[in-house]
Amino acid sequence: MKALHIFLITILFFSCKNTDTLFEKTDPQKTGITFINQIQESEKENILTYEYFYNGGGVAAGDFNNDGLTDLYFSGNQVENKLYLNKGNWQFEDISLKSGTAGRNGGWKTGVSLVDINADGWLDIYLCYSGLKEENLRKNQLFINNHDLTFTEKAAEYGLDDPGYSTQAAFLDYDLDGDLDCFLINHNLKNYERKEANIMRSERDKFAGDKLFQNNQGKFTDISENAGIKGNPLGFGLGLMVSDINADGYPDIYVTNDYVEDDYLYINQKNGTFKDELRNYIQHTSYSSMGIDIADLNNDQLPDIFTLDMLPHDNARQKTLLWPDNWNVYQSQLQNGFWHQNMRNMLQINQGNGSFAEIGQLAGVSNTDWSWGTLLADYDLDGFKDIFVSNGLGKDFTNADFIKYYDQVASNGKNLSLPDYLKQMPSSETKNYIFQNNKNLGFENRQKEWGFDEAAISSGCTYADLDNDGDLDIITNNLNETARIFRNNAADQKTAHNFLKIQLRGNPGNTFGIGAKVFVKNKEAQQYQENNPTHGFQSSVIQPLIFGLGTFSGENEVTVIWPNGKSQRVPANSGQKTLILEEKNASTTTTAPLKKEGLFEEINYLSYQHKILPVNDFDHQIMLPCHYSYHGPKMAVGDINGDGNEDVFICGSSARKASFLIKSADKFIVKTADFLEAKENQDAVLADFNEDKFPDLYLANGNYRNAQVNENTDELWFNDGKGNFSKGNLPPDALNNSCVKVLDIDNDGDLDLFVGGSIQANKYPFCEESRLLKNDGKGNFSPVSLGKIGLVNDAVVTDFDKDGFPDLLVVGEWIPPLLLKNNKGTLSSENQPESLKNLSGWYNAIEKADLDGDGDEDFVLGNLGINTQIKASATEPASLIYNDFDQNGTIDFFMNYYIQGKSYPAASRDEIAEQIPALKKIFSDYQSYASATIEQFFDSQQLSQAQKREITQLNSVILENAKGDFVVHQLPVQAQYAPVYALALDDFNADGKKDILLMGNNSRFRLRIGKVDANFGIILLNKGNFMFDYLPQNQSGLDIRGDVRSVRKIGNGLLIGVNDNTMKYYRLRKNK
């Protein structure tokens, strides 16, 4: 009986505690946390009259009675706030009435922040207000802790009873004077036109503008204007984080703004002022930026930034969501002074050199639907921070069918009541997201495995170790539903990881050590956290910092740098669990680390500016994946004037003639090629075509948007040896060419040419023919058609089969690498190596070098990368279906790619209906299109007659020459940050092995793909055996921004062609 009794108790225990998932949702009836943020719509208060009606409330976690247990405080929009006292063993007591923290009757409560504002060692509560309320109902409140679980409201006494439309506050010691100041974000309620933006930027709005309050001996003073804080009515502040972004020892501030207004990145100027330097650090942001968190996600001791938007993961939600995807509106936005924005989450990885690489799509965290709060923390205690996202919306006013209904009612002159409108507006109840860090800049969705597989509408969120077991539990403030508490079982699992909990005790004035930095280092890893309380949407937490240690059980070295610059370093064994560090024991004064010299340094003596005439290719073909008119500049290198120096030819455009860079001593002198007309030069080569020993010039011309023969015909120019050129004869081609390569195809001693065919003008994805131009030895060329082999972008000449005749390896869009074997003067694409057949990609560049030292040439292929919405594999390929489906004389094409295991069209309902109006009848509303596939567009006969291309892989890769075949080698993840358009293979670190430089980016994809610009010049160091290590940007010295289209190594430097931008020159440092 005793054994049976023990067995029954065991069964009961495990039935109550589900450890199959990392987290388990607790029962409100058992915990006592029954708070519900109940929202009631009315004619006066609803989402149509107040767009932030469903933003929800916040939650704060902190120990209010100093008993060692973390308590919880929830804010309610229309209901009273609730304060729950942690009694231990997952039992909480509602002390809201006794504590006096319920909030103001009739007020709309929003964000909540914790702070020891009077430096007495007890946590106080700062509560924000907003909504369609009178000014006296919007004054923020400050609840001072009376040390007996009661609080007294004293916001006016402290000068913090601001009546703005407030979202959240953060407390920080911005001037490092030892006390805590306050930064407050507000938002606008007024509508405005984009054209008014320039005027409004200089205005100050006391209710909508953000504010900085300086603490002067317990009295807070608004110093916003003098401190450089924007206070205009453009701001719609939703998210706020404090972090030392540039590692100079001073706290900086990031503010996320909803709608079209830019985010703000306030860099502390160390003199009492801030400067918004967003554009210096960030290349693009979320469009409707919402929640934000900042933490070191890749353990490089640099803070990374994660901002939220509302792009759904599933196809159905994407197809029913109204996107800001009009290119002309986007350009108008830029012209009116706004920054680049796309509607998706943005993961900004700190490069350590003042720039951030945005890789949210590569990392797998860009699409989490209507997202509010994010929490970056190590939930499984493996030593790497994971990501939690709360999301959902009570009423979705961006639903395309609702907007259509709303517009139709208005146009018909009907006068419906607001409740009637609201009935047509759908709710957006979704699952919260949680992602596990894969330790290689990627994240795996663990909603199901970690216990977040139930739908909800969650906004405010924070984390805390509620049971003091060493792992972080998650708390969410839900809409019209009981708040959820998710218990973390990481510390209780059989394979539990070790952890270290660090409690900070600061000096008087900042008793909780806000702003301190903590580093934990051991033989296996190093980690970094900042002690800043504002985390999660409208939420905050003050508790000991927790560092997961994985399976490591040895000694750790813990370093804390306090806000005053002093530091201390102590050992801590992994079994120690808790470490208390006090600022009074710090003695060493730290200074900002000196900036290390990179491998390269930028030399600013080039004044050449590439130019492209503004054009919208989407006006020609609405479904284009990107602009194709924004090409170049490509370059050719040769000694054109016979002085023994390498000169450079830079391809021109219709906006600027081509130019030469004439080498003179250690500089280049820009000389316009006046003998040329301003045309769209796609590529060029300098080589001796008439055997006079002087490099001549061949220009491959082309133009996506213009099919004029005189503009597209290639050009041949003979050099007299002194840099003077006379025109040679070429047969007119009128083709849109992409690239040109020099080779002696028939081994007759003269130089022939391969010319790659690009897109037929205005007829994507139809391609031009590629050609071989045979030289008679005097510079007279005869064309030999190679057929329409694809949308060729680049090629290399190589004797692949070692028969003494040069072959070609050609790459392009929607085709696999193509080996053109030379059969003694003729090229053939027959009998392609098997290894190439499954490598169909979106290739933009190829380069060759002996990477493994075996005496033959290997190849690096620059592909689209994996940092876009487009995904492709052999089992789930991206596809392109095209034909003149509606028989109107123009090509119709539809790109498709897989989402959650099924292939869907990339385009929206509006786009396909504009392409083929008949499709609008098939899909009469957006909901009917939400699940549509290409098979529903056309009948089987139409599809069978259409042409189809596929992409099966998007990674930039190495092809090893394996004596008759190719072996594919993957490159580090950084090589996949962005499309690669330019390559240089050289021994950059002088270790005897060829390294790889990849450059590219594309800022002119259609808006649904967005700006992809995370490549600042990626150097991969060759470690042998086709293993390459990424050289971080702060070590390489490269920081090239924009769309790079060419790179040439000239001497000990790199000449870099940036599209529609200034050419760059970087030189190897002499001591390197």
TrEMBL record:
InterPro entries: Crtac1, FG-GAP, Integrin_alpha_N, UnbV_ASPIC. Keywords: Signal. Residues 513-570 form the ASPIC/UnbV domain. This is Repeat domain-containing protein. It comes from the Bacteria. Pfam families: FG-GAP_3, UnbV_ASPIC.
